[in-house]
Amino acid sequence: MHEIFIEAESFRELGGWVVDQQSMQTLHSSYIMAHGMGIPVTDAVTDLHVDHAGEYYVWALTRDWTAVWNVPESVGTFKILADGKALPAVLGTNGKTWAWQSAGKIFLEQGAHTLALHDLTGFNGRCDAVYLSDRPETPDSANKIRTRLGKNAVQENDTVFDFIVVGGGVAGICMALAAFRGGANALLIHDRGVLGGCNSSEIRVCMGGMIGLAPYDNLGNVVKEIAPVSGHPTIFDAAHYEDDRKRFAFEDGGYDKNILFNKSVTGVEMHNAHICAVICTDVLTGEKTKYKAKLFADCTGDAVLARMAGAKTMYGREAQSVFGESLAPKEHENIVMGHSIRWYSEKEPQPSSFPDIRLGLDFNDRNYLNVYNGDWEQETGFYRDMADDIEYIRDYGLRAIYANWAYQKNHCHNKADYADYHLKWVSALGGKRESYRVIGDYILTQKDIESRIHHEDGTACLSWSIDMHFPEPDNSENFGEPFRSFAYHRGIVSPYPVPYRCLYARDAENLFLGGRVISTSHVAFSSARVMRTLGMLGEAAGLAAGICREHDCLPREVYTKYLPELQDRMKKGVKIPCAFECPTNAEEAYHFKDAGWFSFDHPELSDKKDKAARIKLKKGMDLLGLPHKYPLPEKFTVSD
Known about the structure:
Strands 11, 12, 13, 14, 15, 16 and 29 form a seven-stranded mixed beta sheet that branches. Strands 1, 2, 3, 5, 8 and 10 form a six-stranded antiparallel beta sheet that branches. A four-stranded antiparallel beta sheet has the order 4-9-6-7, with no helix packed on it. 22% of the residues lie in helices and 27% in strands. The chain is α+β, with helices and mostly antiparallel strands. Strand 6 (78-82) and strand 7 (85-86) form a beta hairpin.
């Protein structure tokens, strides 16, 4: 059998297609998606080499994402082009589950060829892989093919890092930078191509919360360093989220070499309750590599690493009987705060059209949303699993946005108001508000916050109100599964420090926690969840990791043995480099661009100078004739 297997995300040029890695834990692969907001995107193109001429059957691993809701015709369709020629089948029409769909067959000569994915609609058609074979049978599962072709083999990185941080959102960035600047040989693993998570240009959620709060008013230094200058829920433009600012914080210290972009943790190696290594799958190529470390941090947002390591987690709203919280339900509810897709429209000089798609949602003039953009309230997935069901949750959000916009543009009584508006941007990913939370040595609750319970190991402070999101009742009544939320706010009166014991896992002895996975109840988490707060907590955990490195201890031992040391470091905070600050001192030196520095007060700091450089110094001194504070070092003199 002659076969060729190509990961769609590895295509040479993605064109207008975007990579989605959010379902790596369930699909074992990322995929690409034609996210054109109703306008077909440019082709994704790649090269292939055929070793044996002949007739090949071509397959795409795809699905009809709208079939989940029994939409009669798929809106996310595409074709495969071979050497510029379209194969006959329209793809993305094969049902609601991921499966191989036949694109057709074609004769290929031996040698080089091109393949392209040609989008037909701009409505999120998707493809995981393309498979060519000289046999007509439906291909094996993609994972079986990958194994057969050796693509699931795991390479091993020989370095044993001090600390591996998994997840490059705000909390992960702050934790990693704190560790790097404390001298740790750390590694930051991130499953996207840009840093920032929800605060990146891919999702565009502004940072919330306060920094620099007593008793540790230097916690927040890193947050301030990486935070965009502007930030407000009304800001949608990508430039305001300053992706480069976050990357520069690593580059300025030379730490950027220790960032792995587009890598998703898909496996773990354990020894009892100790994490020894993580296995990463490259989001773009599918290659797998093992990385070892002494310490790890889960900043994934979904407790991906913690759950793989066997750490116990919490999900949903705990019952009142669990923590005695007045804002908790009487019985446990498997409901979380939802997933939001931010989007906005923009006015044009001329009217524009939008396809009249309903997607199975029955909008009318009574229930449609009269909106030009969507923010926190555009929320889905309350009753679903934020990790395993994320493709559905995101798709349901897109479905609601597209169908409502189509109704506004084509049917509503005031459709003239929208005639000149077009969709400018819709996030292809969306941002999660809550997912799995990991149990630490302490679980922060509403009672801690409102009763002002003192904990000796307090770290960074909460400042945001208790802010819980729920499905909007009218929206739920009208559409069954909600896609719009409302919020309940309850001020916490004054800042409240989060115990350090909430920042490491109880059941995985060398695992720190950061971001959405920290050890809190659902109610308490609604106050802790904003990015400036989680960033400060990341800084605290990163400082603790430095103590673990120096004392060869585990996170719990920082609390039991070295808490005063952590408190001292939190008071000082993470030092932020100041570009070209040139501190005040008692120096005396000459500086030539080509010959370098000649330090009179610390000549040992100057490199060895050749005779030409020393002559240059003598000429400069003779020209100026300045009195010196320090004697001329012998190493700078010119001998006859």
